[in-house]
Design goal:
The complex is a heterodimer of chains A (about 280) and B (about 475). With about 280 residues, chain A is mainly beta. Chain A has a single domain (about 40-280), classed as Sandwich (Jelly Rolls). Chain A contains 3 helices and 18 strands. Chain A has helices spanning about 1-30, 70-75, 150, and strands spanning about 40-50, 60-65, 80, 85-90, 95-105, 105-110, 110-115, 120, 125-130, 140-145, 160-165, 170-180, 190-195, 205-210, 215-220, 220-225, 245-250, 265-280. Chain A is globular. With about 475 residues, chain B is mainly beta. Chain B has one helix at about 1-25; strands spanning about 45, 60, 70-75, 85-90, 100-105, 120-125, 130-135, 145-155, 160-165, 175-180, 190-200, 205-210, 220-225, 230, 235-240, 245-250, 255-260, 265, 270-275, 285-290, 295, 300-305, 310-315, 335-345, 345-350, 355-360, 380-385, 395-400, 410-415, 425-430, 445-450, 460-470. Chain B has an 8-stranded antiparallel β-sheet, with no helix packed on it. The longest helix of chain B is centred in the N-terminal third of the chain and has 24 residues, at about 1-25. The chains are: A mainly beta (about 280), B mainly beta (about 475). Chains A and B meet through loops of A and loops of B.
Chain lengths: ~280, ~475
C-alpha cells in the first residue's frame, strides 16, 4: 500500500519531469538525458513481521546491553537488557518495554536491538510501523549507523535517524543525519507534526528512502524532508557503504529530559514490522 | 430514556406520512427517511452566537449570587475575526452579584456532537485567573455534564481543549457551554476575560484516555440491604497534544457499570449502587467497576452486604451524624495539623505532625451537636493508613470519652500496635466496644482521641462508625 502510493507519486514526478523535459526539448533542444534521477526501491531485502512469539529472531537482531558510556553518550538513565520483560515478540508485534526498577545500579530498564553484523545495506527504503509510548523522558528511536563504526568511529561512520520522539511531545517526531561537523547538537534535523493524530494513539509508518546523494524522510505517505550533501555542514558520509538498523526505547537523557512524576511506567513501544527494500 | 421519547415523537409523524404514501401509491420506503438525527454543527460562538437560544447566555440563578450584568461581546479584543465574548467578573461585594456564570443552550432540540472529540476555544484574561468551564449542562438533566474547575487563564490568547469522555453519548445535546468565575484566584479583584472561536472540534490529537471512579482508588464499604450509595470521584483524563494531561469531572451517565455479583448489588446508569440482597452461598460481596467507551475505569467499589445498625461519624457510604470538628486543635500541646479532605474524590481525614488529635461531637462552644448514644452498638469500625514508614514500636492509642467535659465523664482506651498497621495502605479494624478498657457506659460519647506521641506523624483515617449486627 505504502509503496504503491510512493510509486504513484514517483511516477507522477517522472511524468512531470518527462513533460518538462519534452517542453524544454521543444524550446531549447537541450540534452534530454538531464532528467531527474529517481530510484525505485521495490525489492524486499529484509523484513521482520514479528509473527513468531518469543525472543526476536536471532538471525536478524542482536542487543546492546548495559548503560554504555555516560548513558550511551546521552545521559540516558536506563540499563538495556535482553530479558523478556524488556523485549519480546507477542501478538504479531515486537514489544520494547521500559520498566522503572532498580537494576544493576540503574533506575530503569529497557532494550535496544541492532542488526549490526546480521543485516547491513547501502541505500534503500527502510521503514517500521510503530506505536510509541508517551510522557516526559520517553525517547523511542528507529535509526541507522554506518557499519564501519568500529573502524572509523562515530560520527565519521554517519548516523541516519529515521524517527525520534520525545514523549513530552506526542504529536511531533523528527528525522536527522549526523556526520563529521554536524553531529549531536549540530545534527541536520527536521520535525514532523501530526495535525490529527498522535504517536501513542495509532500506528504510523516511519521511513526513509536513501539513495546516492539524498535521504528522503517519510511519515506514513507524507514526504516531509529531503537531506542532500548541500544541506550538511561537513562531509557527506552516506555514499560510502552499508548501514545497520537500531530500534530502542531510551529513558531520560538529553533528547526529552528525564521522566517526571507523571511519566507512566511500565510503557511499551510496539513495532508491527520492519521492512527494508532495495533498488530494482 | 428521554432520548427514546424524543425520537419516537419524531418517528411517529414520519411513520404516519410513510403509511399514507404506501397506501396511496404502494411504493417502498424512501431512501430519504432519516430517523431522528440532530444537527451536527459544532460551532457555538465564532463572531456571533451560532444556533443558540435568543437569550444566548442563561445565567445561574441570581439568588445564588450570580451577576447577570457582566456578560457581553467585544469587537475590539478578539483572537480572530470581528467579535469575541467578554465576561466581566464582579468583585465579591458587587451589589448585583458576587460571581458570574451560566450556560449556552442550543436553540433547537439539541445537536449531534458524536463526531467531535473536544470542546475548544481561545481565551485570555486581564489578569491571570482561574475559572470553571464545561459543557453538557442544560439546567434540566445535566446528564452528560463535563467540567474543569481550575482552568488557568493568562493575559495572552491561548487555545484551551476540554475533551469529551465519550462522544458517542452526545447524539442530542443542548448544553453547549458552561462557565463560572469568581475572584477567588485574584484576591477579590474584579477582572475581565474573553472567549473566542468557541466550538466542538474533531482534533484526533488527544490520547491516553483514563476514566476513573472513586478517584481511581479501590475502595471497600459495608452497606445494609436496600440502601444505596452513589459512586463519586468520577473523572476522565486525557493527554493533550502538548503532552499535558487534563482531567475533567464526568457525569455518571458517561460510564457503563458492572457488578460482579448481582445477588448482592446492582448499579444504575446514574452510578447509584444499590445493595439488593445478602448474596448466595455465603458470598456477600460485589465488586462494582466501570468503563467509558470500552476503556476500563481505574478504581472500584467492593461492597459488602450487611445487616447492621450504624451510627456513622465519618463515611462516604453511611449518613454521618453531625460533629463539632475533625481536629479539636488543643493548644498549646497539640501539634497536629489537618482534618477532613477530599483525596481524589474520596473523603478522608488526613493528619500531619500528629502527636494527638480529637474528633469532637459533644456540643463544643454551645453548638447543637449531640453526643452519640452507642449503648446499642457493639463495635467501632475504623480504617487507618499510615503515610510514612511504620515501625513495630509505633502505636495509636485511641480513647472514647463519655460525658466529655462533664464532672461524671469517663473514658475507655484501646491500643493499636505498629505491627497491625501498614505503610501507605489502608487497614480496617472492627473493635468491640467492650475492648475499650474503662468505658463502662457509652450513652453520651462526645470525643474520640488518637494519641501517637509523634511516633506516627502522618496518618489518614476513614470510615469511622459504630455498629451492631442485627
Amino acid at each position: 500500500m505504502k509503496n504503491r502510493n510512493l510509486n504513484i507519486r514517483l511516477k507522477s514526478i517522472l511524468i512531470c519531469s518527462g513533460l518538462c523535459a519534452g517542453l524544454m526539448g521543444l524550446i531549447t533542444n537541450c540534452n534530454p538525458d538531464e532528467t531527474q534521477n529517481v530510484t525505485n526501491f521495490n525489492t524486499i531485502s529484509m523484513q521482520d513481521e514479528f509473527d513468531i512469539d518469543g525472543a526476536p529472531n536471532p538471525a536478524i537482531w542482536t542487543y546492546d546491553i548495559g548503560t554504555g558510556n555516560n548513558g550511551w553518550g546521552n545521559a540516558e538513565l536506563q540499563y538495556y537488557t535482553d530479558r523478556p520483560e524488556n523485549v519480546v515478540v507477542e501478538n504479531g508485534m515486537l514489544k520494547i518495554t521500559a520498566i522503572q526498577e532498580d537494576f544493576e545500579g540503574s533506575g530503569y530498564t529497557s532494550a535496544r536491538l541492532l542488526t549490526q553484523g546480521l543485516f547491513e545495506q547501502k541505500y534503500g527504503r527502510f521503514e517500521a510501523r510503530m506505536k510509541l509510548p508517551y510522557g516526559k523522558g520517553m525517547w523511542p528511536a528507529f535509526w541507522l549507523l554506518g557499519a564501519n563504526i568500529d573502524e572509523i568511529s562515530w560520527p565519521f561512520c554517519g548516523e541516519i535517524d529515521v524517527m525520534e520522539n520525545g514523549g513530552s511531545k506526542p504529536t511531533i517526531v523528527s528525522g536527522a543525519v549526523h556526520g563529521p561537523g554536524y553531529s549531536a547538537g549540530n545534527a541536520i534535523v527536521k520535525e514532523y507534526e501530526f495535525t490529527d493524530s498522535r504517536v501513542d494513539s495509532e500506528f504510523h509508518v516511519y521511513g526513509i528512502e536513501w539513495g546516492p546523494r539524498y535521504i528522503n524522510y517519510y511519515v506514513d505517505d507524507v514526504l516531509y524532508n529531503q537531506i542532500t550533501p548541500e544541506d550538511v555542514t561537513g562531509d557527506w558520509v552516506f555514499d560510502n557503504g552499508p548501514f545497520f538498523m537500531i530500534i530502542n526505547l531510551a529513558v531520560g537523557g538529553v533528547f526529552d529530559g528525564n521522566p517526571n512524576e507523571n511519566t507512566v511506567f511500565p510503557q511499551t513501544m510496539y513495532v508491527d514490522y520492519v521492512r527494508v527494500y532495495s533498488a530494482d | 430514556m428521554k432520548n427514546k421519547n424524543l425520537k419516537y415523537s419524531i418517528i411517529l409523524p414520519l411513520v404516519g406520512l410513510i403509511s399514507i404514501v404506501m397506501i396511496s401509491c404502494e411504493r417502498g420506503f424512501s431512501d430519504d427517511v432519516d430517523l431522528a438525527t440532530f444537527p451536527t454543527n459544532g460551532d457555538i460562538y465564532i463572531d456571533d452566537p451560532v444556533g443558540l437560544t435568543d437569550e444566548f447566555f442563561t445565567s445561574f440563578d441570581p439568588a445564588t449570587g450570580a451577576n447577570t450584568n457582566g456578560f457581553g461581546t467585544d469587537n475590539n479584543e478578539v483572537y480572530e475575526g470581528s467579535s469575541s465574548i467578554r465576561i466581566d467578573v464582579p468583585a465579591p461585594d458587587d451589589p448585583n452579584g458576587g460571581y458570574i456564570g451560566g450556560i449556552f443552550k442550543d436553540r433547537g432540540e439539541g445537536r449531534d456532537l458524536s463526531g467531535y472529540d473536544a470542546l475548544t476555544f481561545w481565551a485570555k484574561a486581564s489578569t491571570s485567573a482561574t475559572i470553571e468551564v464545561g459543557f453538557g449542562s442544560d439546567f434540566i438533566e445535566d446528564k452528560y455534564a463535563v467540567g474543569v474547575s481550575d482552568l488557568v487563564l493568562s493575559t495572552a490568547w491561548k487555545k484551551y481543549i476540554i475533551p469529551i469522555p465519550d462522544p458517542s453519548k452526545l447524539v442530542q445535546e443542548r448544553g453547549l457551554f458552561l462557565f463560572a468565575a469568581g475572584t477567588q484566584s485574584t484576591n477579590g479583584a474584579s477582572y475581565s476575560f474573553w472567549i473566542d472561536e468557541l466550538r466542538f472540534e474533531s482534533l484526533g490529537t488527544l490520547g491516553q484516555p483514563r476514566p476513573r471512579i472513586l478517584g481511581g482508588q479501590d475502595q471497600t464499604a459495608q452497606a445494609n440491604i436496600d440502601t444505596s450509595v452513589p459512586l463519586i470521584g468520577l473523572t476522565y483524563t486525557a493527554n493533550l497534544p502538548d503532552g499535558q494531561d487534563i482531567t475533567v469531572s464526568a457525569a455518571p451517565s458517561y460510564f457503563d457499570y458492572e457488578t460482579s455479583n448481582p445477588f448482592v448489588a446492582s448499579v444504575n446508569d446514574l452510578g447509584i449502587v444499590t445493595v439488593d440482597g445478602p448474596g448466595q452461598g455465603g458470598d456477600n460481596t460485589a465488586v462494582i467497576t466501570a468503563s467509558i467507551g470500552g476503556i476500563s475505569a481505574e478504581g472500584s467499589l467492593t461492597i459488602e452486604a450487611v445487616d447492621i445498625d450504624v451510627i456513622s461519624i465519618f463515611s462516604d457510604v453511611f449518613a454521618n451524624v453531625p460533629v463539632d470538628n475533625y481536629n479539636g486543635f488543643y493548644e498549646p500541646f497539640q501539634t497536629t495539623l489537618g482534618g477532613a479532605v477530599n483525596e481524589n474524590g474520596n473523603n478522608i481525614i488526613d493528619y500531619t505532625m500528629l502527636n494527638f488529635v480529637a474528633i469532637e461531637f459533644y456540643g463544643r462552644d454551645g453548638s447543637d451537636v449531640d453526643p452519640i448514644d452507642a449503648t446499642d452498638m457493639t463495635h467501632l469500625h475504623i480504617e487507618f493508613r499510615v503515610n510514612e514508614t511504620v515501625d513495630a514500636s509505633d502505636y495509636i492509642n485511641m480513647e472514647l470519652h463519655n460525658n466529655f467535659t462533664l464532672p461524671n465523664g469517663i473514658s475507655g482506651s484501646f491500643q493499636i500496635l505498629g505491627t497491625e498497621l501498614l505503610s501507605n495502605e489502608w487497614v480496617e479494624f472492627d473493635i468491640p466496644l467492650s475492648s475499650f478498657n474503662g468505658l463502662t457506659s457509652r450513652d453520651a460519647i462526645g470525643m474520640m482521641l488518637f494519641v501517637t506521641d509523634n511516633n506516627i506523624a502522618n496518618l489518614s483515617i476513614d470510615n469511622i462508625y459504630f455498629y451492631a449486627e442485627n
